[in-house]
Write a structure and sequence with these properties.
The protein is an alpha+beta fold. 40% of the residues lie in helices and 27% in strands. It contains five helices and five strands. Strands 3-4-5 form a three-stranded antiparallel beta sheet. Strand 3 and strand 4 form a beta hairpin. The longest helix has 58 residues. It starts with a helix and ends in a 21-residue tail after the last strand.
Length: 216
């Protein structure tokens, strides 16, 4: 009986020791996995934002869906220009003399493809919609529209991914805490997103940590 009790106590000690270890190491492991997966998703979101800004530069609006954005990257070009000052003499009817007029002249220097400019000629942009680490090949949610901003019509867009898609295999309680997080050092809210459908902004909700070189 004494031996049985000793074995039982030994097993209980192992069990409680493991539980304590998990309670300490679980959140640490979760944080490491979270940051790794968030970094991959945020890198994609940055590429999407760059592509959307290029789309707006050329078309004056944002793309509503990924097929449209990808076709644009495939074929569109930036126009390279140079602005210079110039002047000419013009007869002024009021003063009845020739007067110098100053003008700004914009010269077209050439063209460069969007694909080469943003993606170094690779075809990685064709998978812009795919979420890194997603279990079931989920896609980023993206939308665009125009809104009234102080009396002016302005194009806006938003791209997002629910945190649970990236953390599908992590403890549910830690995922729930993460989605409710509010901190200047964390990605606040249930989603990682860039842009806005309610205001003119291309900013994102991730902290500076994800923009530092050390995090690359």
């Amino acid at each position: 009986m004494k031996t049985v009790i000793q074995i039982a106590l030994w097993l209980l000690s192992i069990f409680f020791g493991y539980q304590i270890y998990q309670s300490v190491m679980g959140p640490i492991k979760f944080d490491k996995i979270k940051k790794e997966r968030y970094s991959a998703a945020i890198d994609k979101l940055k590429d999407i934002r760059d592509a959307q800004e290029a789309y707006r530069t050329v078309t004056g609006k944002f793309a509503k869906d990924f097929p449209t954005l990808i076709r644009f990257i495939d074929t569109a070009q930036f126009t390279l220009t140079q602005q210079r000052d110039s002047s000419f003499m013009e007869y002024d009817k009021t003063y009845k003399i020739d007067m110098e007029r100053e003008v700004k002249i914009i010269d077209t220097l050439g063209f460069v493809s969007i694909k080469d400019s943003l993606f170094n000629g690779t075809d990685s942009y064709k998978n812009l919609a795919s979420i890194p680490y997603a279990q079931n090949n989920e896609k980023f949610e993206m939308n665009a529209k125009t809104i009234n901003a102080n009396g002016f019509t302005a194009p806006v867009f938003e791209v997002s991914v629910d945190k649970s898609v990236l953390l599908y295999d992590q403890p549910k309680d830690l995922v729930a805490q993460e989605k409710a997080a509010i901190s200047v050092e964390e990605v606040n809210g249930p989603e990682i997103k860039v842009g806005s459908l309610t205001k003119v902004s291309t900013s994102a909700n991730w902290p500076p940590y994800y923009d530092t070189k050390e995090n690359k």
